[in-house]
Amino acid sequence: MPKFEYAPAPESRAIVSLRESYGLFIDGEFSPGADGRAFKTISPATEEVLAEVTEAGPADVDRAVTAARKAYEHTWSQLPGQERAKYLFRIARIIQEKARELAVLESLDNGKPIRESRDVDIPLVAAHFFYHAGWADKLEYAGYGPAPRALGVAGQVIPWNFPLLMLAWKIAPALACGNTVVLKPAETTPLTALAFAEICQQADLPPGVVNIVTGAGETGRALVTHPGIDKVAFTGSTEVGKEIARACAPSRRKVTLELGGKAANIVFEDAPVDQAVEGIVNGIFFNQGHVCCAGSRLLVQESVYAEVLASLQRRLATLRLGDPLDKNTDVGAINSAAQLAKIRELSEVGEAEGAQRWSPPCELPVKGFWFPPTVFTGVSQAHRIAREEIFGPVLSVLTFRTPAEAVEKANNTPYGLSAGVWTEKGSLILWMASRLRAGVVWANTFNKFDPTSPFGGYKESGYGREGGRHGLEAYLDV
Ligand code: NDP
Questions:
Q1: Residue of 363, 318, 424, 293 lying closest to 2 (CA atoms)
Q2: What digits encode the pLDDT tens for the residues 88-134?
């Protein structure tokens, strides 16, 4: 099917005013790091340097934790929930006011299509603050006792795939429950967290309630092992999650981990094919597949395999890859050279192990980090591409004959974050959902998020829940 020719429709980046360099946000102000180290953050679509960002060392982390402790003891924990709610509502409204600017900034620094940052990420960020603002003065009704207490200072480390959204998932419930925070954004995507620091200033949030320390893995390690932290919240790779769990094991601090996934998206023969194909595309090609709950394993009932595959390939040929700031773009840039190398390596392993690789005709830009939407067929459960998280736009297709076989294959993974089921039969959805070992099971849809709904995994996908009433528990002394 020929693609329509679309005229370019770029979102203007003039709305974003970037500083040349950024300090650390500690105690309500931007300040330089103790040892003067800095790193550059680039646009993955063009490799253009966007800004220089301070690398926080242990002394800076210590200063941030001290500021958060002071703010917790003298200000934030003393405020009634109603007053905390006012700040959270104010932050939510400023996010809405700055939505366009934040969406452009996120797409610049991360490489994701503006359509996604504008329509998914930023609206969900505001929704998270609104939702948790609502809880701040109603915690006694959350089911955690008549007077639930905050934990103290939370150390939070987030990844690069949904930079501002992951920040919202961490900071909104922490503040609503009366904690103060020190957050480290990912090295490759620090800019929206720094823009959020400016929003905290604009909202007159008391100094020290939110502190942002930028840096790489070492900064994250210094934060999660700091003795002044009462709670650790981490989203990222299973490998680092395990290291954090080990480091925190001897202490009393509470830990929640949201780690990797290898979700099965299961299509039964009675599913509406066109709808399922949209769900498959959304499941694995949304955000270039940089999604922990991505539907990276497609399980199709054998009787409709040929039909679903042909339809999927036709649909993939219409996806537009390119400039993340173009409103027509469906697939943006891979977030970093390192991530691109990992996707390439695992895709080569897939071929070497005997799976068949297919991509639609797709021209890749010369500069930047790019990978075409890719589908592997002839995949067996033993293949590495069926077992390991690729975290890119790569789908592995397997087949099954019976519901029991689908369950067995879907659960045959060390992960357990999400799953999708496509069928017309409500009874089959319920039968499957009760057997799938996954924190979230989507029925006839995929990648749907809402602040009221808890999210989290089983097994190597981590522990604890974020969002909804359940997510409050992680930030309360219960
Ligand atoms: P990491 O787990 O390394 O990064 C997540 C966050 O943890 C980042 O802020 C990172 O900093 C920080 N960090 C790294 N090492 C430590 C440490 N020892 N102690 C504390 N914090 C640390 O993920 P990567 O970015 O390296 O991605 C690797 C793979 O992980 C991906 O290919 C993907 O498979 C998976 N992943 C899963 C995610 C998910 O949502 N489940 C999200 C991101 C990645 P820095 O960015 O500076 O390294």
A1: 318
A2: 999 999 999 999 999 999 999 999 999 999 999 999 999 999 999 99
For ligand 1, say whether the CB of 461 is within 6 Å of any of its atoms: no
Does residue 163 have its Cβ closer than 6 Å to ligand 1?
no
pTM: 0.97
Rounded distance between C-alpha atoms, residue 300 and residue 398, angstroms:
6
Torsion angle in degrees (nearest 10) through CA of 184, 188, 191, 193: -20
User: Does residue 218 have its Cβ closer than 6 Å to ligand 1?
Assistant: no
Would you state the structure tokens that stand for residue 145, as one six-digit string? 């006792």
For residue 272, report the distance from its CA to the centre of ligand 1, in Å.
37
- Going from the Cα of 308 to the center of ligand 1, the distance in angstroms, rounded, reads 34
Residue 3, class by beta-carbon neighbours within 10 Å (0-12 exposed, 13-18 middle, 19+ buried)? exposed
- pLDDT tens-place string over residues 30-67: 999 999 999 999 999 999 999 999 999 999 999 999 99
Q: H or E element: which one contains 255?
A: strand 254-258
- Ligand 1 center from residue 471 Cα (angstroms): 21
**Nearest 5°: CA angle at 278, between 275 and 283?**
125
Establish how many alpha carbons lie within 13 A of residue 407's alpha carbon, considering only the half-sphere containing its beta carbon. Answer: 13
CA 133/CA 340 separation, integer angstroms: 38
